[in-house]
Design brief:
By secondary structure, the protein is an alpha/beta fold. It has 5 helices and 5 strands. The protein has a single domain, classed as HUPs (Rossmann fold, 3-Layer(aba) Sandwich). Helix 1 (19-29) links the parallel strand 1 (7-12) and strand 2.
Length: 151
């Protein structure tokens, strides 16, 4: 029954979920019969970059609500040898900002695909845009004259 079932795994932080996240998950869905999506825990993310804006519980709930994944799990490590063995993963999909990082999985018979990041929206870009807009608003507020106080 499971002999021809291709198991695909993809994972990520999925902070401030946007269309490029969805495109990668949809792409991964098309590569096999079973799609497992790992959502990086807050602890994992903060071990290598700034903490996510959206808490883990909300990020995993968003991914679970999508139609593409069959299974959604916490991703607690960037080392995936044991995970691909335990879950019988045949195909591993990750964003191309990680090119080369997961080539070691090929030695385990896993096909590794680095999904093109794509143009336009990115979490880093969204955070930068929000911060810039916030700073502009604060600057306008901080430079407004105080109204005359009538006694």
């Amino acid at each position: 029954m499971y002999k021809n079932n291709i198991v695909v795994y993809t994972g990520g932080t999925f902070d401030m979920f946007h269309s490029n996240h969805l495109k990668m998950i949809e792409y991964a869905r098309g590569l096999g019969e079973t799609l497992i999506v790992g959502v990086s825990t807050d602890e994992l993310v903060t071990s290598y970059k700034a903490p996510p804006v959206i808490p883990f519980e909300e990020r995993i709930a968003i991914i679970k609500a999508l139609k593409y994944p069959d299974i959604v799990i916490p991703q607690r490590s960037l080392e995936h040898t044991e995970l691909v063995k335990k879950l019988n993963v045949d195909v591993f999909v990750v964003g191309d900002d990680w090119v080369g990082k997961y080539d070691y999985l090929k030695q385990l018979g896993v096909s590794v695909f680095y999904f093109p990041r794509g143009e336009g929206v990115s979490t880093t870009g969204l955070k930068k845009q929000i911060l810039e807009q916030y700073k502009e608003k604060i600057d306008k507020i901080d430079h407004q004259p105080n109204p005359d106080i009538v006694k």
